[in-house]
Amino acid sequence: MRRWLIATAACGLGCLAALLALVLATDVFALFGTRASAIPVPQNLRLSTGGDRAIKALAIAALKEPLDVLFLGSSRVVFGFDPACRSLEGLRAYNAGLNGSHSDEAAEVLHYALDHGPKIARVVWNIDFEEFFREREGAGDFAQSGFAGASPLSVQLRHALTYEALRKSLAAIFGGQSFYMDVNGFYHYDRQAPANLDNGRDFSALPTLRDWFPHYLLTLQDRFAIAAEQRFARLEEAIREARGRGVAVDIVLMPTHVARRALFDLAGLQPRFELWKRRLAESVAAAAEGEGAPLRAFDFTEIGEIARARFGPGGPLERSPLFFEALHPKPIVGEMILARLLDRGPRAKFGDSLAETTRPERLAADRAALARWQAENPTLVATIAAVVQANDHRDEPLVATVRAEASFLMRE
């Protein structure tokens, strides 16, 4: 019996040692810096795991040199702001954006970075309208990350001695995984698995309209009414904390394709979109009070030449020079935004301060631009309307409430 126990223990330890050796040799999550040169993948790229919250927390804590720029926000940030882009040449930056994130979560990321990361000069924080409809809980792995207090050792063990580590390490050896996440936090859209890139199959002129439809906008619960004030309060608190610790803050509203704005309008949410922008401007103004580092807010959501870009035939890399699909702008748009923020390179006539774009006449002009696009594209609008109708799960009382709110806001 004793020999059997010893043999079993030795076998178990041997298996763990073999797993650890494999994980270290492949280092698919770029956690240990031990990837063997025989693995045909650039050392700066890694695989995704869960929502990547845990790994990004480790990466931020591991940074030693001061950061000139820390990016915060959702998937528009992770795909849109490349820390290695020309506009950031000579600057150190990290992209802490997270897929499906919202401002409550980004506030926790910022707090963690201030406490555990290097000195930060500036935060560029994208805020999305849609995030105010998302559940507060967010991605499941947030609770298992350093952002929520998990120890670095526990996170490293979870990514070294688990089935997922084994599965992805073997897949990396046999070419079954796509390394598209950079160690600087940026996600290389073009390096994703082909199945993920084939996201225009629903409507070629409106890619991802149905495949990535924002169902959380049209549920039985009015999540915006429930969450908005708490989100704005948390946002103000986080901005004040950053400013008080000497970190400049740039709030940005990144653009989407005009089709996304048309979707809001056809769902009766255009007045709420305008209300959200006005309320955000108020929060920024409140957070700017008192001493602290500079705070600015820029709005790039107004409908102009960029938002009206047309999608042509082909995949996400060819069909538009500005957007991957209706939701995510390409890094070239991110560079245009950075040129405005950092006064680097030629500045496109694109974007303005949020205080300006929320003036009544600017809101009215933007509303009129949206109406013109809809009038000029009746077939596309009919397609969007049909998809909205098929995915609208609001009941009549909620729809009536939204309509009444819209009527009131339009009279203001």
Give a brief outline of the structure.
The protein is α/β, with parallel strands linked by helices and 412 residues long. The chain has helices at residues 2-26, 53-62, 75-80, 103-116, 152-158, 163-173, 194-197, 223-244, 258-266, 270-287, 331-342, 354-357, 360-376, 378-391, 396-411; strands spanning 45-46, 67-72, 93-95, 120-126, 181-182, 248-253, 295-299, 352-353. It has one domain (63-127, 188-411): Rossmann fold (3-Layer(aba) Sandwich), CATH 3.40.50.1110.
Describe the secondary-structure layout.
Elements: H1 2-26, E1 45-46, H2 53-62, E2 67-72, H3 75-80, E3 93-95, H4 103-116, E4 120-126, H5 152-158, H6 163-173, E5 181-182, H7 194-197, H8 223-244, E6 248-253, H9 258-266, H10 270-287, E7 295-299, H11 331-342, E8 352-353, H12 354-357, H13 360-376, H14 378-391, H15 396-411
Parallel strand pairs: 2-3, 2-4, 4-6, 6-7
Antiparallel strand pairs: 1-5, 7-8
